[in-house]
Amino acid sequence: MTDAHGSTSQVSKARFSLAAVTQILPAARRSPLKVGLPLALGLVAFIVATYYATSLYFLAEPEKVTVADVLAPLDEGLLQEARQQAAELRSQPDLDEELQSACLFVLGSVLAEEAEKTGQPTQRRLLNLIAARYLDQSRQIGLPKDREAQGVLTLARAFYRANRYVPAATMLAEALAKNPDSAIELEHALTDCYLKMQPPQPKVALTHIERLLRLPGISPRQRDEAHLLAANVHFTANNTAACEASLAQVLDTSSVFPQAQALAARVQLQRLPPPKPGQSLGTAEQQPLQTLIAELQPLAERKGLEQGVAAQLSLLLAQCHERLGKQKEAAHFYGRIRKLHHGSPEAVASTFLEADWLAGAGQVEESLTLYRRGLQEAEPSEDYDNHWLPRQEIERRLEAAIRRYQELKSFAEAAELAEAAASLVALPQTLLWRAEIERAWAADLLDQQKGRSREEKDLLQAQARTHLREAAARDRELAAARVATRNFPDDLLRSATTYLQGYGYQQAEQGFRQFLQQQTREGQPEALIGLGQALLAQGRTSEALATLDQVQQMFDKHPANYQARLLAAAALQEQGDLSAARELLNANLFGSALTPQSTEWRDSLFALGHIQFRQGMTHEARSRNVPPQETEDKRLAESLRELEIAAGFFEEAIKTLTEATQRFPAASQSIAATYEVAEAYRHAAKWPRQRLQVVTIDSTRQTLNRQLTSDLNSAVAEYTRLIERLSDDQESSRATVDLKVLRNCYFNRADALFDLGRYEEAIQAYSAATNRYQHEPESLEAYVQIATCYRRLQRYAEARGTLEQARVVLERIRKDADFAKTTRFDRQQWIQLLEWFSTL
Hints:
The chain is mostly helical. It has seven domains: about 5-60; about 180-260; about 290-420, Tetratricopeptide repeat domain (Serine Threonine Protein Phosphatase 5, Tetratricopeptide repeat, Alpha Horseshoe), CATH 1.25.40; about 425-515, no CATH class; about 520-575; about 590-755; about 775-840. The protein has 39 helices and no strands. It has helices spanning about 5-30, 30-60, 65-75, 80-90, 95-115, 120-140, 150-160, 165-180, 185-195, 200-215, 220-235, 240-245, 255-270, 285-300, 305-325, 325-340, 345-360, 365-375, 390-405, 410-420, 425-445, 455-480, 490-500, 505-515, 525-535, 540-555, 560-575, 580-590, 600-625, 630-665, 670-685, 685-690, 700-725, 735-755, 760-770, 780-790, 795-810, 820, 825-840. The radius of gyration is 46 Å and the shape is elongated. It comes from Anatilimnocola aggregata. Keywords: Membrane, Repeat, TPR repeat, Transmembrane, Transmembrane helix.
């Protein structure tokens, strides 16, 4: 078969024939008979020749491309042609691995060459990074034959120049073994890699710098550069003596001598202790700084100074002035560096250093602006390279600034800075900061409640819960970011717990369930308890009980079991199983190692008293709803029996809750507990009163009367004590439940006095209630009771006057008032009732 070059020849002949025919056509027009026949034969021959040539062209096998063909343009310096050819070949689907490797080698080598020609640092790093990826792929397949040493060397340089120091160190070491002629360059690069790694490895770096200095053929300039690099390694390791010793080896005629002078000045500055926050340096402490400024000033003003050295000297001068407390001069130098050396490591460092200084001075907005600018100007995390402020140091300074903002209660600014820091600081760390900020913000809002009105307290609590949910969301993101680490379960548990605190019950449930799916026993009891709380809050009582029962079954010796019983008791109360709830609380109080000093013991005591009170109320309600019996006497006897049982429970509740309030007077449950004690006394009096209706024995009646009077007097005393406690300067800031307790105390105290037959005192007590709540529906109950007291005292005119007053009050009560919520009747029924009373 004809080769590709032969096919090209045939096509050329066909083109020549076509041109000849074109020239003949004019002659044919002039002499059709003489020229026509030959022309026709010629056309036939042309068509046949064209078909034959075209067939040969398309049927011929293309010339096979070799690795040498791929590499040839690169070797000849034809970079664009080399890249284009390699890119086209790579697009072929069936390209063998040998050619693939050659194409990748060419693409990586071309990009590495182009990277060195660009003057833009960011673009140079990006091109080197892409070049490194191509070359690394070629290496993994197998570098072209006789190009292994060159390929590894180019790959090592690309990684190093792309600031990828960890892979660069590995490839530089391999390149060193394959390219001994480049040992000086490679040892220098290896030293720099280990110096700039995060965290730096100065010991390894020093090993390479020592090998570099021992290499034969090292020039005086290279030796000075090596000594300067060694000094930087020692400086990073905080070995100032060794640093100065290395700097002393740099000749004063060397081109790197100005850099050595700048580093020597850094050493001097580092030796001087910085002033403590909020304090100024004394005269003796200022002297070394002033001397250093005097030495640096002429160096910084020297003409022809390299830009990098000039920036370093200016930054040192700024730091000296800052330590001296010369804010104006320091700000001048910081601003000058940012203007003249924009994008340099010194410009970035000056931005952060000035921001630190402003933050320390409490200038939050100004410092935040600079921090944001510094983060924008600094390279992304993987490209960041600044020997003035290594990434770990930047992280430490940002953390200090965030902490300072929180001390100044500037939580929004702290959160903004933490979010902006994600460009330079690892995402998990910024999420951790943001979660902690939101939690601290919530705690601060809750601390602001003291002395605030009830409405303000409600608003602060709602805001705090919002920030807690934000903290939980950041923790959840943190868990996702650290899913492959040992921190993952802890992050999940912390997120779910914080959601629970912020009333995000569904998210809390999801988080606790996800945590419980992890194969870890640590934290499981706490997670089960949290899940139980979340389910209880959502009204899913049966599920909550099943969850809490797991704690009691699986972790019966764990301290979390006490809280599980407490929560399970609350769930059982919701279901109405008060006896089972009591058993759990009794187990906490009397069947465990809990002491009265523990929170669970205290809460169990209050909860037990509340359950005893509820049991009393349950039996009292049954006494009013005894089903029909064979006789009325039997029904009354059953009613009395239920009242007697109720009185027994009330007596238990009084004893338990009195102990609780005496032991823990400052507990949040103490107000409600004191109110239930008062209520228990008042309701307990119903049993002796009911028995008096059926008992005829005088001694028994006297005993019942004494008990009745004692219970009601005790109730009055407890109500009065609560009224005095709640009616103080803090009333406007009290919780809604406390205000409801206060209202009930006013009315129930009057009822107890009425039941005692102390009508004058009852009138006064009811009047106090009506004066306080005259615009509320419940005041109508008090007016009716006042009228009843007057009738009992046979003061009928005053009774009628009171009822008229009640009718006036009824007219003034707002139209949308909910009468059924706090009284026995709706508005229309009250109108009818008061009209009927006025006829009596």
